[in-house]
Amino acid sequence: MGLFLETVLIQGCGQEEAKTIIKAIEDRYSCSDEEAAYDITNLAADQCQYREYADGVSILINEDCIGYEELAEAISSDFSKVVMLLYIYDGDFWAYALFDNGELVDKFNPQPDYFEEVSEEVLEASKGNADIVAKYFHVDKAGIEKYLVRWEDDLGDMEETAYDDDEFGFGDWQMADFMRKLGYPYEFEEA
Q: Which residues are registered as beta bridge partners of 106?
């Protein structure tokens, strides 16, 4: 089994506020209550790692948590925040979902057909939009758009990088280069 990793970026948020938010989401939704608004499993705020940056906070979610998009949507909706979930799935690919006040505004997955064949609508909805990300994170579109490509065949295992200053090629850890370009470098300790 490969690496499963979830990271959440919360804009306009300090580290202490982020800890309070994650604890509130844990208390509200990470339970066995089948009537909970969001399906979030095993979130443990005190086991997450937090890093504060100029524009917000990056949170490495505890390894037992299964939340993905519902986790980001809950944070964004309940606390009126811009939230980006970035994740690595089974060491095979990375992806993101961007929410603003609980609304999904952009989504990227280089392998949307990883589990099964999908419709053209799903392929289109999973392309990611560099214009939207650039607007929300105040970065140059040209500095991030090369990450947002569909991985055909073996592209997800290539050592070639999207940009000359990248550390990682097209693969799961390319997520760290993308995060760095957004102003949230991946600086977490291994759990």
A: 98
